[in-house]
């Protein structure tokens, strides 16, 4: 084998050996981007947590989907949820996730919401409300949490 042929073969082997390494590195980088993105699955998990909390009337479960320390007016929102749960005997809620997006460190979920609130004693008809809400989320040290919801008056 002459020197030129041997050099070409060595170069080809080197290129082929580096190819899997590059693909692996690209996969790792892609995985990191996927983990940082606010996805439909993440939004659905947070919305399910809110639904479970409201329907089971557990304030902590509901509010654990939110990072109240990052939320403008977080204490007032907490009080609003406490008042909602104390005002009605039962709450049924349905979320229909329309879309999610990620911009920088912030995620957004646009959601159609229907809620049925039954006053205590079943003496009056349930209250029905429908709205489209915009939830904003930020990634914390462990997971994504909602840091805003508009319009907040929906939970009044």
Described by strand count, sense and barrel closure, the largest sheet is: 4 strands, antiparallel
The average pLDDT value, as a whole number, equals 83
Q: Point out poorly predicted stretches.
A: 7-33
Q: How many beta-strand elements?
A: 4
How many helices? The count is: 4
Distance between the termini: 84 Å
Mass-distribution shape? globular
Proportion of residues in extended strands: 25-35%
Radius of gyration: 25 Å
Query: Numbering strands along the chain, what is their spatial order in the largest sheet?
Result: 1-2-3-4
What percent of residues adopt helix (DSSP H or I)? 40-55%
Structural class: alpha+beta
Order of helices and strands: HHHHEEEE
Summarize the structure.
This protein has 156 residues and is of the alpha+beta class.
